[in-house]
């Protein structure tokens, strides 16, 4: 003999999916009620301008003319500087001419470094544009179901907290079952305990869940504490957002009528 308590079946998590980057929506591949897989492409923002910018950056990163020219100038100015220093040591060249040759070498080295840095910047810009293009493909972070589609092709997707989300998703495998128990039963509920859950729909169905969370802070006003059950739903037959009954075999008739979630005796 045990006791049954009212409970509510909820999604494991509900997500508001926003674009990480602002852009015009090109297409949305899902609608309300569609099941989605983790990593599935849900929507795509327009990337025409980004692809052009990526192509320009890629071309710049592959242009080696400035680097090759700089290397040649450094090589030439190095030889010139070496000759100038040797001639100066032999008193065939003034210190001023030698210094000019050495300065020319340093300038050539600086120009070469600028060319190398510019090519590296172009490579980084190319990678940045590729990352922007990647971010404009919105993928599902979970296995779940689309509960609401809030933006459509042609509308502007805005990034940031507080901005309108594109989609709302709910993870429904596993489900969470929330139930309140009387404080007198606190010591009788253990993590991993098997609990029978009877949802209001489909009628007559019974499922097995396990205790996942036991609240450590009790509600003195209502004389209850919260327990969360984890309910497997691999075939997604059990809908979320419905009422249910949770049967606790180790809680007896002594707790019937206790708290604000009165129990019913199970026979």
What does this structure look like?
The chain has 267 residues and is α+β, with helices and mostly antiparallel strands. It contains 3 helices and 13 strands. It has helices spanning 48-62, 65-89, 95-135, and strands at residues 2-17, 23-28, 35-36, 41-45, 137-139, 144-149, 156-157, 167-182, 194-199, 207-214, 224-231, 242-248, 264-266. The strands form 2 sheets. A 6-stranded antiparallel β-barrel has the order 1-8-11-10-9-12. The protein has a 4-stranded antiparallel β-sheet with strand order 5-4-2-7. Helix 1 (48-62) packs antiparallel against helix 3 and helix 2 (65-89) packs antiparallel against helix 3. The longest helix has 41 residues, at 95-135.
Compact summary:
The chain is 30% helix and 33% strand. It has 267 residues and is α+β, with helices and mostly antiparallel strands.
Question: Which tags fit this structure?
Answer:
267 residues, alpha+beta, Elongation Factor Tu (Ef-tu), domain 3, OB fold (Dihydrolipoamide Acetyltransferase, E2P), six-stranded antiparallel barrel, four-stranded antiparallel beta sheet, elongated
Count up the helices.
Answer: 3
The overall strand count is 13
Instruction: Calculate Rg over CA atoms.
Output: 35 Å
Content of β-strand: 25-35%
Give the CATH topology of the largest domain: Elongation Factor Tu (Ef-tu), domain 3
Q: Give the integer mean of the pLDDT values.
A: 87
Helix content: 25-40%
CATH architecture of the largest domain: Beta Barrel
Q: Please name the fourth-level CATH homologous superfamily of the largest domain.
A: Efflux pump adaptor protein, beta barrel domain
Number of domains: 3
């Amino acid at each position: 003999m045990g006791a049954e308590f009212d409970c509510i079946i909820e999604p494991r998590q509900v997500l508001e999916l926003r674009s990480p980057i602002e852009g015009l929506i090109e297409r949305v591949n899902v609608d309300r009620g569609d099941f989605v897989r983790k990593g599935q492409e849900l929507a795509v923002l327009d990337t025409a301008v980004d692809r052009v910018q990526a192509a320009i950056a890629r071309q710049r990163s592959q242009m080696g003319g400035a680097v090759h020219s700089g290397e040649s100038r450094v090589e030439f100015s190095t030889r010139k500087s070496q000759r100038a220093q040797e001639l100066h040591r032999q008193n065939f060249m003034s210190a001023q001419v030698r210094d000019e040759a050495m300065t020319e070498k340093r300038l050539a080295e600086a120009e070469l470094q600028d060319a190398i840095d510019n090519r590296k910047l172009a490579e980084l810009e190319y990678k940045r544009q590729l990352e922007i293009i990647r971010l404009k493909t919105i993928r599902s972070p979970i296995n779940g179901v689309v509960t609401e589609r809030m933006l459509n092709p042609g509308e502007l997707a805005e990034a940031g907290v507080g901005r309108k989300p594109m989609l709302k998703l709910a993870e429904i495998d596993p489900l969470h079952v929330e139930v309140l128990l009387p404080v007198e039963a606190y010591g009788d509920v253990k993590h991993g305990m098997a609990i029978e859950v009877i949802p209001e729909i489909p009628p007559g169905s019974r499922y097995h869940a396990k205790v996942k969370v036991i609240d450590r802070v009790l509600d003195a006003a209502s004389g209850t504490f919260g327990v969360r059950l984890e309910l497997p739903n691999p075939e997604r037959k059990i809908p979320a957002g419905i009422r249910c009954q949770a049967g606790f075999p180790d809680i007896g008739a002594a707790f019937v009528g206790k708290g604000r979630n009165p129990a019913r005796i199970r026979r």
